[in-house]
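FW: tagging you since you asked about this chain on Friday. Here's the raw sequence from the shared folder, copied in full. Didn't touch anything.
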Amino acid sequence: MQNIRINQIKDFCDNIVKINGWVYNSRRSGKIGFLTLRDGFGLLQCIVVKNEVSEEIFENFKKLTQESSISVIGKVVKNDRANGGYEILLESFNIHHLSKDYPITPKEHGTEFLMSNRHLWLRSKRQHAILKIRHQIIKSIRDYFDMNDFTLVDTPIFTPSAAEGTSTLFKTEYFGKDAFLAQTGQLYGEASAMSFGRHYNFGPCFRAEKSKTRRHLTEFWMVEPEIAYCEIEEDMQWAENLLIYIINQVLDNRLDELNILERDIDVLRKVKGPFPRVSYTECIDQLQKDGFNIQWGDDFGSPEETHIANQYDCPVIVHRFPSDIKAFYMKRDPENEKVVLGMDILAPEGYGEIVGGSERETDIEILIERIKEEKLNQSDYDWFLDLRKYGSVPHSGFGMGLERVVAWICGLSHIRETIPFARTMTRLNP
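HL: got it, structure written out here
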């Protein structure tokens, strides 16, 4: 008898096996009991027949409650109607712990209740599927950069300065000094790119935006590649290729989970290159034509992003934004000083910006001027300016928000389901 996982079941047909797990649900119909077992790797139907087991076993079966922890022993048999095509004819089981009054029942529960019980909600079929897809996306990101000779260099969580302004930073005391939780690792990524040529960092970021929209978290994960000897057009191509690779890997490896979520697979299959590329100015013209009250120089909000993206059936790259609404380190377009060589990738179906990037400014004097304009403390950026003194080269990079990509690929209505324990303006627990 072997101790196996549910996802190995097809390899043990007609064998006696042992599986450790939890009761997902159970019911009886006369002298037959039906048990759905979960073990973190899948769901499996177990059948217990009163006349084929001891009276004690059948009576103990009646005691089983939702989320009780048990080990089952039985014979694996093929059943095309069962989940996964196999089931276990149960011979015996051992109860490790009887769960009592499990709060999440098959009935409908409100969002606040479920979020307050997030530590338990993760066990549900839907949430399990979302986080398995999240895992696949993370693996795909790492695989993509690793196989393209990028070097992972971790960037600090505590920083002395802002990369994109101070209004959205979490401030903390740091041994008598002010420090901030990192909103991006991008500035440090530039240093790594000058060392390794191709860099990426991948970790948590923090933004104190007072936003309660379905697109925002205060703590989220972001992957940020930075590439030496790379201009804006190549930067766009790296981002496009990354998204296509992720989509293909999810479709190849997580189709069952997408089906659990009832995701429209055809929408994802349409994600192929090349992505449409439109300028910010072209977008403004289109928005004005379609009745939006927006002027050149205004930033896009969610309605504008959604409208632009809805013109296409795959992600769209918007480029050359006004310099006044973008970060100080973005390089201005030599052909038009009013715009930067920056780009955003907007996901279809109303999911908004999932990638933001740019070619970086290499001229130290221009950078100093921009730092002064933003009223930032120049001494905090002396090390960053050094990168322009010693071997400066054209370089570019972008940031991709993991949770927004998960929300889009899974077809979720709110970003709070994309991360194990969401942090928003109103939630710090659990």
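FW: The chain has two domains: 2-97, 118-418.
HL: agreed, and The chain has 13 helices and 19 strands.
FW: great, closing this out.
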